[in-house]
Amino acid sequence: MELSAATVFLSVVSLVILVSFLSRKTSASSKKKRPPGPWCLPVIGNLLHLLTSQPQAALRDLARKHGPVMSLRLGQVDAVVISSPAAAQEVLRDKDLTFASRPSMLTSDIILYGNMDIAFAPYGAYWRMLRKLCMIELLSAHKVRQLAPVRDGETRSLVRKVGAAGRGGEPVNLGRLLCSCSISITAKATFGRLCDEELQKQYMPVVEVAVKEGGGFSAGDLFPSLWFVDVATGLTRRLWRTRRQLDAIFDKMIAECEAQRAEKKKTSTTSKTTGDEQEHLLSVLLRIKDEGKLEVPISMTSIKAILFDMLTGGTETTSSAAEWIMSELMRNPDAMAKAQAEVRQTLDGKRPEDHEGLIDKLRYMKMVIKEGLRLNPLIVARLLYYFDWSLPNGMRPDELDMDMIVGSTARRKNQLHLLPSPSRELPVEI
């Protein structure tokens, strides 16, 4: 039965009145002085200021008016925006322990197994153990060097796919290809030889749904008293369904990895790996769990949460950063020409397998795209080395769409489409 307009209107008005009452009650209980900030509306607070395709620009403009430490009210939630190097240093370094913990959200509570991952775990012994584990066992310089063949092979594959897709003179969906490349690199680093195309086909859609559903704030995150809205809209149900799908994939991979480790113990005189062996992330986590030498033992739930962090962080962050870098270079032809000339001068005559070792010599690229170089420099360097790039349909650089969607990362609203023109012989498959 369809609801009448009057019924819908009365329901909305009742909901607004309820939220307004709860908001006043919450604010009345807190008399702490807040930093300066813009005007805010009843119920929604400052959400209206951020309803734009470029929220970072809106925050910049507000900070220019209200100062580097600015307060906002997002629904029923108070927030403070830091917009200067000095203030950021005080928050992130000088008073790091005070601000170390993040608020729990619906997505992190469900998808991240009750905030058991690195990003959302509250500061304490467990979080310190995870940080130490990552720095020593997962993200050390030695581990990064071990994964060089994976990065080399997958970025070569990306170059070949770009060349094949642009062979007919059609625009290439560079955003999609970058995402696929990042997923392959992250998956092979996480699961090693256990990761094949079939596995990627299984978990890629699940990870994409998890990032999409949990990439922003839910109604309950901004209006805690209206938590039931997430249930009514089906968001809670969809997140739990995604969690069960992730569980099935992780359980399968853990079982296969455990079987491989057991077989290796039978066929080897020692259970320790040799210097020539490369342990993937899952194998490292299971080994550390079995050794039981950590101050706070990790469980299978912890392992699953860490795996999800690595899969989404290594995929979404890297591909988004590389896509933004290419977008900015396309908008600034002079910067593109300088970066491309430096890359080609440095890499010309060198073997493809030696490219990554030469990245440190790209001084101009370091200045132009520092964030991209921190994440995965080889992707951008090889795209600039092997191809000349142009915008489709006669588009001018200043016409390139730079709208974004802010979620777990600030990614492009519309994926980047460019016209590649090979300038070098493409690398062969290894």
Automatic annotation (TrEMBL):
<dbReference type="InterPro" id="IPR001128">
    <property type="entry name" value="Cyt_P450"/>
</dbReference>
<dbReference type="GO" id="GO:0016705">
    <property type="term" value="F:oxidoreductase activity, acting on paired donors, with incorporation or reduction of molecular oxygen"/>
</dbReference>
<keyword id="KW-0812">Transmembrane</keyword>
<comment type="similarity">
    <text>Belongs to the cytochrome P450 family.</text>
</comment>
<keyword id="KW-0479">Metal-binding</keyword>
<dbReference type="GO" id="GO:0005506">
    <property type="term" value="F:iron ion binding"/>
</dbReference>
<keyword id="KW-1133">Transmembrane helix</keyword>
<keyword id="KW-0472">Membrane</keyword>
<keyword id="KW-0560">Oxidoreductase</keyword>
<keyword id="KW-0408">Iron</keyword>
<keyword id="KW-0503">Monooxygenase</keyword>
<protein>
    <submittedName>
        <fullName>Putative Cytochrome P450 CYP99A1</fullName>
    </submittedName>
</protein>
<keyword id="KW-0349">Heme</keyword>
<dbReference type="GO" id="GO:0004497">
    <property type="term" value="F:monooxygenase activity"/>
</dbReference>
<dbReference type="InterPro" id="IPR036396">
    <property type="entry name" value="Cyt_P450_sf"/>
</dbReference>
<dbReference type="InterPro" id="IPR002401">
    <property type="entry name" value="Cyt_P450_E_grp-I"/>
</dbReference>
<dbReference type="GO" id="GO:0020037">
    <property type="term" value="F:heme binding"/>
</dbReference>
<dbReference type="Pfam" id="PF00067">
    <property type="entry name" value="p450"/>
</dbReference>
